[in-house]
Amino acid sequence: MKxxxxxxxxxxxxxxATFSLSAISSQANAxxxxxxxxxxxxxxxxxxxxxxxxxxxxxxxxxxxVFPNVIKAGLIFGGSYGEGVMMKNSxxxxxxxxxSASWGWQAGAQSYAYVVFLMNDKAxxxxxxxxxxxxxxxxxxxxxDEGIAKDLTSTTLxxxxxxxxxxxxxxxxxxxxxxxxxxxxxxx
Length: 188
Known about the structure:
Layout: H1 2-29, H2 33-50, H3 52-60, E1 63-88, E2 91-118, H4 121-129, E3 133-134, E4 141-143, H5 146-151, E5 161-185
Parallel strand pairs: 4-5
Antiparallel strand pairs: 1-2, 2-5, 3-5
Helix pairs in contact: 2-3
């Protein structure tokens, strides 16, 4: 009997998480191309203002992926969704989404922005030619925090990609196993 109750409770939690994520993703998907381009440009300016190292890295990058508004929610099971822009020399090269699923001890909701600087042709072509880029598979991605940022210069950039997470809002407590996938999308 306890096993059946546990199974039903878990199925209910999965259903709630799925419903929440689908509601969030439909709101994020509603952004027009013009809004997404404008939000991406503003997010880059915010990042550069608060983290000058990011601007230095941008000058060496082959392309920049900007996700200006990623929404994350969860209660045991969770997920996140956001849409972004790939830019090269301030020109839009394509549109992408970022999706993650997580499982573990977590509760809450938050929004944040993140930028991934693709530093070489290998990282850029992997994203363009694959059916999506799962963080942790393929090119090496370094998530830059304040400690790492202090040691980065144009001569120490050796990894395939560098990611900056910023502009976090909301409250999300989590201790979870998470995977993120970035996939090209067609925006009209």
